[in-house]
Write a structure and sequence with these properties.
This protein is an alpha+beta fold and about 160 residues long. It contains 4 helices and 6 strands, in the order ααβββββαβα. Helix 1 packs antiparallel against helix 2. The chain starts with 10 loop residues before the first helix and ends in a 7-residue tail after the last helix.
């Protein structure tokens, strides 16, 4: 059950974000110098700064070894300041949505929503929680392995709604 592998941000995404931000800066510079349209540059520069900072954020997470993993207790999102635990006993089922931004959706038991809300400090209880897996390395492997482990836990009866 123990998973020693951490599925973190993809280095390819970091490369795309940082080079894209440099491209946005150059585009803004072109608007200022040649097109004399500083209004477009004012719009483009915040986008470039945001892409650059997001790239640096992901780069720091890669170096720190942060990401998603699971253990005996449940699924762990270790991307923030402190790890977020989604306990197996709280997860009713795991769904998957495809598309441009593929994500896993954790559905909670009705009687566990208040516990999750209190632990994470959410203002309203949520029936589900989306995990954006389009930005992590080997997202298909992560999804398949997580589904296997979840079915294993569910099969052992550890996930009974109380």
């Amino acid at each position: 059950m123990e998973n020693s592998k951490v599925y973190g941000p993809s280095p390819a995404n970091v490369y795309i974000l940082i080079t894209g931000s440099i491209g946005f800066f150059l585009w803004a510079l072109w608007f200022i110098l040649f097109a004399k349209a500083w209004q477009m540059a004012v719009f483009i520069c915040p986008v470039a700064v945001g892409c650059f900072l997001l790239g640096l954020y992901y780069q720091r997470k890669i170096k720190a070894g942060k990401g998603y993993y699971w253990d005996e207790k449940g699924l762990v999102n270790n991307m923030g300041k402190k790890p977020q635990y989604f306990y197996w006993s709280e997860i009713k089922r795991i769904g998957y949505e495809t598309g441009k931004n593929a994500c896993l959706i954790l559905y909670f038991f009705d009687n566990k929503q208040a516990d999750v809300q209190k632990r994470f400090g959410w203002k309203k209880p949520r029936k589900n929680y989306p995990l954006d897996i389009s930005t992590i390395t080997k997202s298909n492997e992560f999804r398949d392995e997580l589904m296997k482990v979840y079915k294993e836990v569910w099969g052992n009866g550890a996930n009974k709604s109380s």
